[in-house]
Design a protein that fits this description.
Number of domains: 1
CATH class: Alpha Beta
Strand order of the largest sheet: 1-3-2-4-6-5
Oligomer: single chain
Radius of gyration: 23 Å
């Protein structure tokens, strides 16, 4: 009736449907990752553009240590590269690197390729590229990189995986433990987890041990537990 009297009647307009957020899509170089050999996997990690961390990448911390073969004895997984590690192209440098090398030496191990140690050792990072300003990587960045880490485990078939740091533990154990993988590191250590059938021992990152030297005793117990997975008859 109001319309018939020349009065404009307001009617609510239908709202346009909310746009769906863009769904993450693996870039072309990650297609077929589950079938990649070591060389192809390393090339994919070096050129990966799955997230913005690639923009500040000097080196992808894919792997270092012994000559890579299948069935390695030890696979050590650190957190995310620091600025110094990004420039150096390897994990555990500076003071934390000296402590890390001392930890290895106490087990009769070395990360040098020309080392005479009978045990093979490969070192990698849960996140391959350096987060800017040394910030913590986001959950999505960890997830994007975890596909490389899990394929490394499949290819290397390590006798034990030594995880140093909470972020690395979360990246490796997320699929098996779910939200429990994000609990404090102290609750993840002192036990043997399993990833792809491989034993996993979680311990403190060397950078943390430099800040909290009182926990070195606990870290040593973790190293002994990991060594027992490589040599079950050791005491």
């Amino acid at each position: 009736m109001l319309a018939d009297m020349g009065v404009r009647v307001w009617a609510p307009q239908a709202r346009p449907p909310l746009a769906r957020p863009p769904q993450p899509v693996n870039p072309p170089q990650l297609a077929g990752l589950a079938q990649m050999n070591w060389a192809d996997l390393q090339a994919a990690a070096t050129t990966c553009q799955s997230c913005g961390l690639c923009q500040g990448r000097h080196h992808s911390l894919f792997a270092s240590g012994s000559q890579v073969t299948s069935a390695v004895d030890w696979l050590v997984v650190g957190d995310a590269p620091t600025a110094a590690e990004n420039l150096a192209g390897q994990a555990f440098v500076g003071d934390e690197g000296l402590l890390f090398d001392a930890m290895l030496q106490a087990l009769g191990l070395s990360r040098r390729k020309d080392a005479t140690s009978p045990a093979s050792l490969v070192i990698t990072s849960a996140v391959k590229c350096h987060p800017p300003d040394n910030r913590k990587p986001t959950a999505d960045e960890i997830k994007q990189c975890s596909v490389f880490l899990h394929r490394q485990v499949e290819l290397l078939e390590p006798k034990v995986i030594l995880v140093l740091g909470r972020l690395a533990a979360q990246a490796l154990l997320q699929d098996g433990l779910g939200e429990a993988a994000s609990q404090p590191l102290g609750k993840l250590r002192s036990q043997v987890h399993r990833v792809s059938g491989r034993p996993v021992v979680v311990s403190y990152h060397p950078a943390y041990l430099l800040r909290s030297p009182a926990d070195k005793r606990k870290a040593w117990a973790d190293l002994i537990l990991a060594q027992q997975q490589v040599h079950p008859d050791s005491t």
